[in-house]
Records
---
Amino acid sequence: MNLARCGPFVESMTGYRLSSEDTAMSLSQTMPLHAALARALAEHGVETMFGLIGDANMFLVHSFVHERNGHYVGAAHEAGAMFMGYGYAARTGELGVVTVTHGPALTNTVTGLVEAVRGRTPLLLIAGDTATGSRGGLQDIEQRDVVLPTGAGFEQARTPESALDDLAVAIRRAITERRPVVFNVPSDLMWREVAYRGVPLNLPERQVAYPDPAAVRRAAALLTAAKRPVILAGRGAIDARDQVARLARRLGAPVATTLKARDLFRGEAFDLGLAGSLAEPATTEILNRADLILSIGAGLNNYTTIGGSLLHNRRVVTVDLAPATVTGDAAVVADALVAEIGEKAGYPLEHAEPAAGRPVTSPGTVDVETALRRLDTILPEPRVLVNDGGRFMMESLRHLHVGDPRRLVFPENFGSIGTGMGAAIGAAAARSPEPVVLVSGDGGFMHGGVGEFATAVREGLDLIVIVCNDGGYGAEHIQFVERGLDPGLSLFTWPDLAGVAEALGGTGVTVRGLDDLDVVAKVLDDRAGPVLIDLHLDVHHITPMPH
């Protein structure tokens, strides 16, 4: 199991020890359970928590902030809080921590739980529960039964005396299983007095997986025999960038990446950019001519392989920690392959040029590709990029770059819109020096962004929101039009989004023509808080999303 994604959190936790002074205090000091849990979170390295308070978790949050000097980001909605935790974990590599109260507060977290499960994101959700003796209360629900169908783990605070152990188990599971775990605490336990004691997490040390030499030799023989090999690098290859680059040069092979490893080799002569449904035409052509695909740390899903067509009629050699042609650490395997392979001659790369003759859009709108290419040069660098879901994604993912895939946060493993603002706030709350850029559709922004934009203002975050505004739900508009049906049900008259941003305490700019982007450049240079760019698009001229 690769725990590298948990980064500094794992390193600090594996060496966790109480000092003798803390041990003595732990043996003698009693406190309410909510204060004990807050102290345990702080000692487990938790510095930031997201959530929405209610009567079952409010005292835990109060203790975390006022007794442990923790940073708490209060969300407008539990769904937003979940994606804040997701964005924080994705950006930092540390455990994301979220807290909500019981009943409807927990049910509001379900989409975020599924997202974190599918994104393999370590997340701790501390959920309050109704009192242990409650029966028939307004917010009573079997919370375990709500959680388990999402794929998340569930740990119950069984008694006040066991709760600190139960919390440690929940954190350990979230990190080692790389998924969200709900820690469920009945409200009547929170004020029970407990003797505080430190509970170490006992996380396993990270181990490097070395490949079977025979598997390396077999893979090297296949690569040597190939006339037109292409390397496909995924998220699992991010920490092996230099080794994969060395292998590419040895093979004379170009390298494409999955979405989650985008820009990993940007600027290199052998870089093909993104593979799959987001690939440029020249990249797709080279991939289609390849006689062997070497996949390193890549998930070969339908989007990356274009419905599996990339894998047809050619050899595929896979390198991964999971069972693969060569099972092992990506960097170690790449170096081993270099040692086995002699010099090979590759074939020249062909770079796609920007499409000529972009469509003329209706008055008061801009062409999305032209505008995004321009924004790519205007937006500050380095930057963190977060994408919401929607019709605009095809263009924004192609034309806005991050330079380093660690700065890409993509909360779209479950295909929901309205997830981006929470994830962007979580990424920005990490307080790294790079600004966070969120790209959202107008429907996604209205769905999950408006209330949390106010959260970003309250937190004083360096957040730039680009709303690709086609006046409705564009993916549905396409389907209506393609079937000759009235698309009116998919269209909406939204308020002035730039004005909404201003009313919420941020800065708003409306873009109805390319000349307006000069104003955007100045606003970004002068920004002192969250900025919203309302990019007006023609609903008839945006690339449809792949299904």
---
Amino acid sequence: MNPPALGATAALRPLVVSGGAVVAGLAAVLGFAPLDWFAAPIVSMAWLLWAWDRAAGRRAAARLGFLWGLGFFGGGVSWVYVSLHEFGAMSPWLAGLATFIFCAFLALFPALVGFLHAGCRLKAVPRALVFTPAAWALSEWVRGWLFTGFPWLALGYSQVPDSPLRALAPVLGVYGVSWAVVASSALVRSAAAARARSARAACLVGLAVLWLAAGAAIRIPWTHPAGAPLTISLLQGDMGEDVKWNPDHVASTLSTYARLVDASRSRLIVLPETALPLFYTDLPRGYLAALARHARALHGDILAGIPERVPDGNTQDYYNSVFSLGSSPTQVYRKSHLVPFGEYIPLKSVFGWVIHHLLHIPMSDFSRGPRVQKPLAVAGQRVAVNICYEDAFGREIIRQLPAATMLVNVSNDAWFGDSAAPYQQLQISQMRALETGRYEVQATNTGVTAIVDPRGRVTAALPLFKVGALNGEVRGYAGRTPYVRFGDHAVAGLAAGVLALSLVGGRRRRPAR
């Protein structure tokens, strides 16, 4: 058989590299829950850096970054389709199109980093080791707040719970860990490309120093226990989204949670997001009183997710709320960071037709709670509550710190079915525990309900789609990690400074005309 013509082989190369970019993006998803292969994103990014260095200009590098992003986000957040089609009643083709457009938008961020990487005039090694990791971290930070933000699948999450790089979380947060991931990839790529043994050895030594130093830093006690151990019960009712808001199933739901509460002997009992599917004022007379009596008998409190309706003049505001019941005075936390198109309609005059004609999502017109709220004083602790999606925003969680002694997340991940989303959310909770140096407990409707210690380790968990109570013991913690003190400002400012210095250095190296 005759070999292919050189022209045909050359024409195939861009297709092969483009396909490789998509595959590399998909491979990076293996680093996230539930697989947790933390080395996968590092290898994936090393390949992407190699491809960027060989791209024929900025546009080609941006295209490779975009294709990598399509594979990465397409594989990592494909559960968006489940919520749109299976539970939002959107047609399959329209749900698929909406999911693709969403992933394509997210893919613009690695495309931008590729464009900047190819345009940076620094030499290859400092560009890969200094410029690009900072650009990546800054791009993730922007993705975390632009258009209300979607920080899901920041590379730093992939290093929880086992990678030594997770030790950077209490200092620089998840974006600082992402920075270290890309820097590690750059060292791997530079070592593979180095021709001289000394250069290869220098890269490998740098990689070893980074990882060994991070491994040693994980032992730093940024926070310390405060108060006596606390018994806790996290309730999982396993109410499918197809029945949760069905009026015919309300009585069964209330009965299930009343039974689970009655069986608990813990001082703090936590029910999931909107666990009781009636407005607070519409619940049967005596139901909440009975729950409160049980908590008081245990000298404790209950935190229950209950939607809230509050009159506001001639209209009414609706809140996704968590109420406390029991020994302490009744308190309420109202969700502040709402999910676009899931809990509110952005630019309702423009997009209102989406809910009325394309999506059928109950409780999709919530109001925002206050931006800053105090921790709830319950069961002898000061609890920083956050609801579902809010847990992805570390900068918002720390608004209640250092006053709060522990974190509580209540969620309803039934929207995403049997997908990776519930496990990814648990991984996010592990990062929040690391960043703050506190226990975070997560009570969910269908799972994963879990207890996470201040080192980011899951100490106990319930399986998905099981009715039950997770009973355990936690501790309150006091103190302030560097991340609690400075938030994302530290890594964003540092990254911006590195980029500015790199651009100045690149201009000075520009050859004279």
